[in-house]
Amino acid sequence: MNMHALETIELEMAVLARLVKSMTSDLRNLDKSAYLLLHQLSSEGSSGVKILANKLHLDISTVSRQTASMEQKGYVCKVPDPKDGRSYFYQITDLGLKELSQYKQARLDKLEELLNDWSDEEGQNFGQLLKKFNQTLMDK
Amino acid sequence: MNMHALETIELEMAVLARLVKSMTSDLRNLDKSAYLLLHQLSSEGSSGVKILANKLHLDISTVSRQTASMEQKGYVCKVPDPKDGRSYFYQITDLGLKELSQYKQARLDKLEELLNDWSDEEGQNFGQLLKKFNQTLMDK
DNA sequence: GTATATACTTGTATCATACAATTAAATTCC
DNA sequence: GGAATTTAATTGTATGATACAAGTATATAC
Q1: Considering the domain boundaries, does residue B128 fall inside one?
Q2: By three-state DSSP, how is residue B90 classified?
Q3: What average pLDDT values come out for chain B (140 residues) when binned by 10 residues?
Q4: Which nucleotide minimizes the distance between its C1' and the CA of A37?
């Protein structure tokens, strides 16, 4: 790929990481970190910490703490695996779904306001490229 | 903007933030956090912590610690402002420039490998949209 | 039935960050 | 010109997200 484009992506990616961090720091009903966890449980169904850790690219100890915290808040419930006394499934609860949807909506509202002068085409394009980029990162 | 596009951007942005975090955790000569600081000093010249904090969207206390750490490593030097006894300029040193460039190159190499099957056009497009997105975030 | 592997949790450490308190210098306002 | 206020920066303290290592309990293999 063209060097200039690479350099742009490289720098802007660093800038973005910083900006996203400061941007999301104020919608704090939900632990920011738990968003993807709940999303995962909601979109691909219950699973145990090992699978979650894999999907989320996190250490299992981190996920274990996240699930414990989510359980404590009533957003997920911990179901023992009948086939294996060591393992559990975490299942998102109705309250968890509600929280997830509210948090998502808050993010969407904010984003919509930010991007209010972007064209449909730019938005679609950006969304697709971001998705592709993530896919590329995920697979390697 | 089209709702579906917004939703894609919203979700993929969260995924990206996570992926970028795990991706960059292994090129650790330079504190990951210091990269943008050195970049800023190198591209827009010396300045004090307040201005840096503004440009980097960080608290001045955070920047103060970052500059102290960079100074300790010899990547920046701290020059008293002759006009104001309270303030300083931080200036990037030759060593700092060298480190910055090495770190940047490592990131570029990694990115190049990741994106080796992307077309020039996609890359350019993505770079431009990322830049525009960051600009949008930066300004609000 | 002992040894090993596996699923998960808990202990400990680190990093990046923010907010609050502090210090020291500059500015303002009688 | 000196007291009150503002400003630039640092330092104290706390937190959140993370990883790695050690521990616990259960399952599997030989």
Answers
A1: no
A2: strand
A3: 90 89 64 88 95 95 96 95 95 95 90 92 95 90
A4: D17
The whole domain housing A43 covers: 3-139
In a 10 Å sphere around its CB, with 0-12 CB exposed, 13-18 middle and 19+ buried, how is residue A5 labelled?
buried
For residue A22, which residues of chain B lie inside 8 Å, CB to CB? 57-58
Note the pTM of the prediction, 2 decimals. 0.89
> How high is the ipTM of this complex?
0.88
Distance CA A135, CA B18 (A): 13
Which tokens go with B117? Answer: 């099957």
> Is position B136 within any domain?
no
Give the CATH number for residue B103. 1.10.10.10
In this complex, the answer to whether residue A21 has its CB under 7 A from any atom of chain D, a nucleic strand, is no
Q: For A105 and C1, how far is CA from C1' in angstroms?
A: 57
Q: Does residue B99 sit within a domain?
A: yes
Number of domains making up chain A = 1
In a domain, B20, yes or no: no
Task: Tell me the HSE value of B124 on the side-chain side, using a 13 A CA sphere.
Answer: 5
